[in-house]
Amino acid sequence: MVDVAGFMAASGYRFRPGSVATFVRLFVDQLAEFAPYDRIAHVDCDVLFNRDIADLVGQPVHAPLLAAHDDYMYFRPAYREKMSMQPGAPYFNAGIIVFNMAPVREQQLMKEARKLAVEGQMNDQNALNVVFEGKWQTMHPNWNLQSLGTREFRFSQAWARHFAGGKPWGNQVGVELEALSVWRDLARDTPWGKPFEQRIPFERGMTKRFLRRFDALAGLFGKDVQRRRARYDGTKMHRIYARQADEGAMAVQFPEVLGGFA
To answer: N or C: which end of the chain has fewer CB within 10 A?
Structure first.
């Protein structure tokens, strides 16, 4: 375990307001403790693993970064223009990523990301997406399984379940009961146990899923986000990304076109 608070304070960088912990991933090339390693995995705190993390880090990676698509962004493709990316640039979720440190160090990619985060006042995920554009390999979606408010995937299917929306310790929308049970057991008899003591008598997220039924209707009135969301098929996208990951493919351009929800 490494206490990075002092390191970050002495770094000289002043990022936009937010948690120091989320920006520490931009310093993987600077921390002395990481110097001996060729692969470094960053994992957010809202993740549960159902499989050995060594399997994630040990798979073949030929690009500077291994990451999973963040399909939520493809409902709002204007991010590409706002971030000066290519017209069809894919976007990854930085909650679970694997750095291939040889090319990362050689190309000084993290130095670029730090500079962009400071000068552009970007959050760390956006800065990483700009710097690693065209340089990231598709991660199997089971290694960063998110719900997007759907019921298409089971908790047991995830190799790593990422609660990027509702949190097990928060509003719990979209959080599976099996996952809540795991968190409750882990937190029992610790200072963090109280948020998990509540018993949820019904499945959270039912209202949100009900409202999703009207996305197609909203799309008829020019609501592009709802139109794309209505066309989105999570199971189809999962198959596409899984196949690309098995092939060791780089992230493709215009994923929403490939998935038929552009």
So the answer is: N
- The mean-pLDDT minimum among 20-29, 37-46, 180-189, 196-205 falls in 196-205
Number of continuous H segments (helices) and E segments (strands) in the chain: 13, 6
Residue 94 covered by a domain: yes
Task: Kindly state whether residue 258 falls inside one of the protein's structural domains.
Answer: no
Give me the DSSP letters along 188-208.
TTSTT-GGG----SS-TTHHH
**218 has a pLDDT exceeding 80:** no
Q: Tell me how many domains the chain contains.
A: 2
Task: Enter the DSSP assignment of 21.
Answer: H
Inside any domain, residue 28:
yes
CATH of the domain at 106: 3.90.550.10
Residues 124 and 16 in one domain: yes
Query: For residue 149, what are the contacts with CB-CB under 8 A and spacing of at least 6?
Result: 165, 173, 174, 205, 208, 209, 212
Q: Which residues form the domain of 189?
A: 144-236
256 lies in some domain: no
Res. 200 pLDDT band, cuts 50 70 90: low
Radius of gyration of the chain (CA): 19
Same domain, 228 and 107: no
Q: Higher confidence at residue 189 or residue 199?
A: 189
- Amino acid identity at 138: T
Q: Are residues 99 and 135 in the same domain?
A: yes
Q: Amino acid letter at 53?
A: I
